[in-house]
Design brief:
By secondary structure, the chain is mainly α. Helices cover 68% and strands 0% of the residues. InterPro entries: Bact_Transport_Assoc, DUF418.
């Protein structure tokens, strides 16, 4: 790792805006979930339907897409300087995992600990051909393991019909009454165990890797550097993704009806719902991205770019949100899960996002990076000479 520490890079405001939308979506899902406590006693109402259909899984997918895009930007800038960033990127993932480990003590749903080790898989793909990247991404999106499990469950094999380990998660109920010490201790192992089982059993790990590669490929193609060059392709893909999303959403029932019922194969139909649900999430995320880019190319650009500072502080705001709201919702703090109506929490979330947008705008008038972004970059290069104050 011999590359010199670079100066603060020039920004692509469209990419920063996409990161901001990812942050906004993830945060609003967290507020809807009361940072997971909601799932101890979910309510099948309109709010539930809206968030599970249009937000959950989509914002997370956008975050992972942006991660792959960021990988390309880092590696490409190093290539332009004539240096190899691979070793530095691997160390950067170690640092991110450490930040995630600390964050996960407060909020076990932390995604950084998942993204960091999986990010290492991107390194050998940096110099792979475009077709190789797309084929690998396509194979991962198909979810081969889930397809195998569906076939095995439908044929009555016991291992495929076993109750998923993640279904035994007691975290949401536990957080209602746990003390701070109990929560911290539980999050070290039990909380992480259930989280990882969820990512494994739902195919999320394959999805993350696929979207990493898609982000890498889009970055290499310059889709977000010169979106006007891809107008026809964007609009064609938008129509395709809308069709895929509709097919996945409404295809669950007829496909499930073709499989044995819960008596003969307890998991077969549930696995089909999981598979199509994952495809629906990715397709809808793609729809959102293309609509944002379309709007960005029109008169809405100035308005959308007001969100860009939030995208530049994604890491800082992501961790800060948990540090503020977990003590508000959880039993060791204010226990707001008992007395704060969900609708009120969501409106508070919108207000808090407005505050973050203002803070981000003011922050970057004086600083090059957000606080955690600076720490991450300084640790990556193992120097404090990374520019911070303007």
């Amino acid at each position: 790792m011999t590359d010199a520490t670079p100066a603060a890079p020039a920004r692509n405001l469209l990419i920063d805006t996409l990161r901001a939308f990812a942050l906004i979506g993830v945060y609003m899902v967290h507020m809807f979930e009361q940072y997971e406590i909601y799932w101890a006693a979910p309510k099948e109402n309109l709010t539930h339907a809206i968030f599970t259909t249009f937000f959950m899984g989509k914002a997370f997918s956008l975050l992972t897409l942006c991660f792959g895009l960021s990988f390309f930007l880092l590696m490409d800038k190093a290539d332009r300087r004539g240096t190899d960033f691979s070793g530095r990127f691997a160390w950067r993932m170690v640092v991110l995992a450490l930040i995630g480990a600390a964050h996960s003590l407060v909020y076990r749903g932390d995604i950084l600990m998942v993204l960091a080790p999986l990010g290492l898989v991107l390194i050998p793909f940096h110099r792979a051909g475009g077709k190789t990247i797309l084929v690998a991404a396509g194979l991962l999106l198909v979810q081969p393991w889930l397809l195998v499990q569906i076939a095995a469950a439908a044929s009555g094999q016991a291992w495929a019909n076993a109750t998923p380990n993640s279904w035994a998660d007691t975290g949401p109920a536990f957080y209602r009454t746990a003390s701070l010490g109990q929560m911290l201790a539980w999050n070290v192992w039990e909380g992480q165990r259930f989280k990882w089982w969820f990512f494994i059993e739902t195919g999320r790990l394959f999805q993350i890797l696929a979207l990493f590669l898609v982000g890498l490929r889009l970055g290499r193609a310059g889709v977000f550097d010169a979106p006007e060059r891809f107008t026809a392709q964007r609009r064609a893909v938008l129509l395709l993704l809308v069709a895929v999303a509709i097919a996945c959403h409404y295809g669950v029932a007829p496909l499930s009806a073709m499989l044995p019922d819960a008596t003969a194969a307890p998991m077969a139909r549930k696995l089909v719902a999981t598979l199509l649900g994952g495809w629906f999430d990715v397709a809808m995320m793609g729809v959102y991205v293309l609509l944002i880019v379309e709007a960005y190319q029109g008169p809405a650009r100035a308005l959308l770019e007001r969100l860009a500072p939030m995208g530049r502080m994604t890491l800082t705001f992501y961790v800060l949100q948990s540090l503020i709201w977990v003590p508000i919702f959880y039993g060791f703090g204010l226990g707001a899960w008992k007395w704060l109506p969900q609708s009120t929490a969501l409106w508070l979330g919108v207000g808090f996002l407005a505050v973050q947008a203002i803070v981000g705008t003011l922050w970057f008038k004086r600083f090059h990076y957000g606080p955690l972004e600076w720490v991450w970059r300084a640790a990556t290069y193992m120097t404090t000479k990374v520019p911070f104050v303007r």
